Amino acid sequence: MNQPLRVETMIRAKEQTHSSQSRAALNKRERDVVFLAVKGFTNKAIARELNITEGTVKVHLHNVYQKFGIRSRVALAALVMK
Fold first, then answer.
1. CATH no. for residue 59?
2. How many domains does the chain contain in total?
3. Model confidence, pTM
4. Could you report the per-residue pLDDT of 33-62, keeping only the tens digit for each?
5. CA–CA separation, 31 vs 13, rounded Å?
């Protein structure tokens, strides 16, 4: 299985698990940011790739952290890879 599809599948699975626990699902842009963050992109690189500001990347990550009840990028990667 190729890596991008595997990460996207894991993100969707985690969304479904957390959605069933009354957490909101991620929107498309949040999924895009998570996908790149888990691949190791910096906030600046994510911003360039998605043509958004670095501040917007931070906001999306903050929202994702809140939705999944985590506090860091490392926790996000661990959650997705679980």
1. 1.10.10.10
2. 1
3. 0.75
4. 999 999 999 999 999 999 999 999 999 999
5. 12
